[in-house]
Design a protein that fits this description.
Helix content: 40-55%
Number of helices: 7
Number of strands: 7
Structural class: alpha/beta
Oligomer: single chain
CATH topology: Glycerol-3-phosphate (1)-acyltransferase
Strand content: 5-15%
CATH architecture: 3-Layer(aba) Sandwich
Distance between the termini: 16 Å
Order of helices and strands: HHEEHEHEHEHEEH
Number of domains: 1
Length: 247
């Protein structure tokens, strides 16, 4: 039964992506904040589908820790849903994404029209300078720069592998607050595969870390905050799944 639900959810996910992709095209003609809010609505549609098709509840905690901007949103990355949460909780998110996505129908068009920062993940120091320069421009517009410090999706029990170069360079150049975000999403939404499991997904936005810290201090604090909270959320998520299994 859960396999059937999983495939029905995938139809929901990509079906609504296509519908919204077409319906939202006129928003490209307006200020980018209009398109960003529209993408946030799609994020809520995803949450609705998770709840009513897959029996996966989603909670977002700690919204009071979101600063008006500019800021750096540094999130744990388990699954595709992580990408849409910033559109729900921040006013003007600006994702750092791999350049290949620029050519993806709809997704690439909206990413470029809203000023997302496309990068070569196998780039050089020149690439890093380009990221920082672009981030400065977005921060000057009071936008929230979204980065996943581990660079790629991880399973809940994978050991952390934080990449310091990008976030520490932006931290040094921008000096803005860094907002750590923990999650247990991978318990329900796999990093790879199509088997969605009933349960509770939580995103917890943590108190901001002051900007301008030295690289070593920043990375130690960031990893401790995100991993400590994510581990607690994973325990909570597993308890919720165990409770569902006992019914």
């Amino acid at each position: 039964m859960q396999t059937i639900r999983s495939y029905l959810f995938l139809l929901w996910l990509y079906g609504w992506m296509a519908i919204c992709g077409v319906l939202y095209l006129p928003t490209i003609l307006f200020p980018h904040v209009v398109t960003l809010k529209a993408i946030g609505i799609y994020g809520q549609i995803i949450r609705f589908g998770l709840r009513w098709i897959c029996s996966i509840r989603t909670e977002i905690r700690g919204r009071e820790h979101i600063v008006p901007g500019p800021a750096i949103y540094a999130g744990k990355h388990h699954c595709m849903l992580d990408v849409f949460i910033p559109f729900i909780v921040t006013r003007e998110p600006c994702h750092i994404l791999k350049k290949e996505l620029r050519w993806t129908p709809f997704l690439g068009w909206y990413a470029m029209s809203t000023g997302m920062i496309a990068i070569d993940r196998a780039g050089t120091s020149k690439t890093l300078k380009g990221i920082v320069d672009a981030a400065k421009k977005r921060a000057a517009q009071k936008r929230t720069i979204v980065i996943f410090p581990e660079g790629t999706r991880r399973k809940p029990d994978d050991p952390p592998e934080y990449q310091a170069a990008g976030i520490s360079a932006m931290n040094k150049a921008l000096g803005v607050p860094i907002i750590p975000v923990a999650t247990n999403a991978g318990l329900c939404w796999p990093a790879k595969g199509t088997q969605f499991k009933p349960g509770l997904i939580v995103y917890e936005i943590l108190p901001a870390i002051q900007g301008g810290l030295d690289r070593k201090t920043l990375m130690a604090r960031l990893e401790a905050d995100i991993e400590g909270t994510s581990n607690r959320l994973i325990e909570e998520g597993r308890a919720a799944q165990a409770a569902l299994g006992s019914h």
